[in-house]
Amino acid sequence: VSDTWVVVDGQDEVGAALDALGAAGGAVTALVVGPQDLAEQVGRGVADVQWIDAGDTPTEAWADAAAGLGAAAAPAIVVGATTPGGRAILGAVATRMSAPLVSNVVAIRRHDDGVEADRLDLAGRITETVRTPTSVCLLVSASDTPAPTRDDTAPVTPVRAMPAAVARLKVEPAPGATSRITTAERVVAVGRGLGSKEALGMVEQLARALDAEIGCSMPVAEDLGWVPPERYVGLSGQHISPKLYLALGISGAPQHIAGIRNARTIVAVDIDPHAPFFKTADYGIVGDLHEVVPELIRALDET
Amino acid sequence: MNVACVFKWARNPEDAWVGDDGSVNWQGAKFAASDDDAAAVVFARRLAETTGGELVGVTIGDGDASWAMARGARRVVRVSDVGPSRDDAAIAAALAAAMRRAGAVDVVVIGDARDDHPGVAAALGALLGMPVVAGVEEVSQDSGRVLARRKVGADVETLAATPPVLIAVAAVSAEKDIPGMKQLLAARQRPIDTVSADEAGAPAPGADAVTAIGSRATSGRTAHLFDGDAADAARHLVAALRGDGTL
């Protein structure tokens, strides 16, 4: 058992955690809450695995038991993913250890007097370096880092635990889960700056020229009803990763940006030169989208 | 069910001005209600009303504490001298002190804040000895159990929790039923139990174990802007997208 622990309850998390740890990790103990194949997969990147077989019980129900296990080992660093389950366990571990809990972490370093971490703050607008002299729990931001693929797997030690009174009643496909926006290579999205539902016509024409799907910001779907709700992109909407995301009349609020973090190329068109989107996008045009969109269609038609 | 709604426990990131060098100026911004707070209080009120329980609001810091009373809370407890923190566990400790002051409840509903302070709800639940269900978009109750629906990947799952439980609500829209002036004025007439951190048994203000030693504007994307009239800008943008292989 090492002094660095990683908490994992899903396939996509261990890569991000180990990536953030980098050289600070050393020999890592993984605490896995999930099926056995997940524990074995995680074992390909760590020194040993403590495994709670979650069965069909949600991770949150095991948080207190997992925290007891982690806190008993009193590690210097505990890392988890920003998933509901990861958060539940890290919150419980931090409480048991009376340790600070730092979120949105992207890099971790050991320091002479403790632990240093880089974290994204203000919806990713700044990267802040923080230092803590004590043992610390760190929630890492999601990344595309693949899971480890070492040939051998670390020993997996099953741990018996009692879950709290939280049960999964049912799982069903999310409305719009089959919407083509989730897999589209190109997305043209509209915000309140569109002005009227009628203006969607020219946007649809642009989308056809780009072979793109149409998306929107939350108010356009939820408040104005101009675009079906399964097409809104953002923190609580669709999280998409197209090759091209073209935002028209969207200011770029953090809640919207959260849905396109993994987009490859982002373009913003907005009349406000101070729109936050221009600090997130790769390309931008400051202008009236009603003038810009027809010109984009024309430019795309030119060979 | 007696229900607590935790609200206005952090500043709105959009209120911060960020310089090109990564310096931050909050320009006097106070703790503010988020969309998640607004969604949380709706479900908290509904839970209390449908079960004949009481809704109490719990907050920390310098925000307008009557916000929750204009949205159905019968009373509010506030620990006033608590500032912003980088340590989600420290924020949770202050909220837990306020919760203890509010008295026993069956369900705590809090805004999820998964983008800014994703650890607060979890740490608060742990401090209160309650299991935590986060990322919840819809809350209801059935036969004494709290039902929580949330999106997980391409699925929606429904969880059932036997109280006590803490539910972290993630908004799916901006607040829809904003209280009118009459409700706001009535809310301001009601008493707020305001106490200091010391009185509430919360950690001393400024006692954070997490210290910032520097910040920088996050590197990466800053838009290359295409100038000129709409036709010029559009033509240059399309050329750039073709040039970098996007199109």
What this model shows, in words?
The complex is a heterodimer of chains A (303) and B (247). By secondary structure, chain A is an alpha/beta fold. Chain A has 8 helices and 15 strands. Chain A has helices at 14-21, 36-42, 63-73, 84-97, 200-210, 218-222, 254-257, 289-301; strands at 4-8, 28-34, 48-53, 77-81, 101-111, 114-121, 126-132, 136-140, 156-158, 166-173, 186-190, 213-216, 244-248, 265-270, 283-286. In chain A, strands 7-6-5-8-4-1-2-3-9 form a 9-stranded mixed β-sheet, sandwiched between helices. In chain A, strands 12-11-13-14-15 form a 5-stranded parallel β-sheet. In chain A, strand 6 (114-121) and strand 7 (126-132) form a beta hairpin. The longest helix of chain A is centred in the N-terminal third of the chain and has 14 residues, at 84-97. With 247 residues, chain B is of the alpha/beta class. Chain B contains 7 helices and 14 strands. In chain B, strands 7-11-6-1-4-5-12 form a 7-stranded parallel β-sheet, sandwiched between helices. At the A-B interface, helix 3, helix 4, strand 5, strand 6 and strand 7 of A face helix 3, helix 4, strand 7, strand 9 and strand 10 of B.
Briefly, what is this?
Chain A is an alpha/beta fold and 303 residues long. Helix content of chain A is 24%, strand content 29%.
List the main descriptive attributes of the protein structure presented here.
heterodimer, A: about 300 residues, alpha/beta, nine-stranded mixed β-sheet, five-stranded parallel β-sheet, 8 helices, 15 strands, B: about 250 residues, seven-stranded parallel β-sheet, three-stranded antiparallel β-sheet, 7 helices, 14 strands, about 25% strand, globular
